[in-house]
Amino acid sequence: MRPGQAAVAAALLLAGCAMPAETTPPAARPAVPTDLAARLPEQAAGFLRGATTPLSRGDAGREVGYRTAGMVAAGATVQLYRLPGVTLPEGAGSADAEAAFNDLLQEALRPVPPRRMREEARFTLPASGPAMLRCAETSGSYGRERVQGLVCAGGVGGGVLRLRVAVPRQDAPPADARAFASAILAALRTP
């Protein structure tokens, strides 16, 4: 074999061993709920991150607890999961995202002693731009404690993000539920 032919043969051999091109760009691949849960902040709008637990809902779902510090505490949960065989578009506009929101709101409003809640108002987050989360403010009581809350859901990373916040109703509440939801959304949307 001549020197020029050897170089061509080597190039052809290497070309045959090249890795196939990816068909899905990395940014378009759906995120795994465990990876999304790892991106959640240790602190968000005065809430401190707590335990992460497996979620029976969806594929490899995770639930992350948050609470405020101090004698009068507020609590929140963030749920991330994938619907089997479905990649949700980003935002609150899909039928699956709307179903996730409606299910969460029904759970929050279902009267379960000692909890009684009612819906106060609906809005989307972020306040400007495309709607990523559909949210509802709630108010009511847990036993004697008057509370206000927030439930939100939308499509994030190809799966479902659901979050729920409960804050004691006071003149100076211990936390801002909307700021918490916005901080969680921002953390999940930042690559």
Provide an overview of this structure.
It is a single chain. The chain is α+β, with helices and mostly antiparallel strands. The chain is 26% helix and 37% strand. It has an 8-stranded antiparallel β-sheet with strand order 1-2-3-4-8-7-6-5. A hairpin with a 7-residue loop joins strand 5 and strand 6 (133-142). The longest helix has 15 residues, at 3-17. The chain is globular and about 45 Å long. The model is unreliable at 1-27 (pLDDT under 50).
SSE blueprint and pairings:
Blueprint: H1 3-17, H2 33-38, E1 43-44, E2 47-55, E3 59-67, E4 75-82, H3 95-109, E5 115-125, E6 133-142, E7 145-156, E8 159-168, H4 177-189
Antiparallel strand pairs: 1-2, 2-3, 3-4, 4-8, 5-6, 6-7, 7-8
Brief sketch in words of this structure:
With 191 residues, the chain is of the alpha+beta class.
Counting DSSP E segments of at least 2 residues, the number of strands comes to: 8
Helix content: 25-40%
N-to-C SSE string, H for helix and E for strand: HHEEEEHEEEEH
Spatial order of the strands in the main sheet?
1-2-3-4-8-7-6-5
Mean pLDDT over all positions: 85
Tally of separate helices:
4
Measured distance between first and last alpha carbons: 51 Å
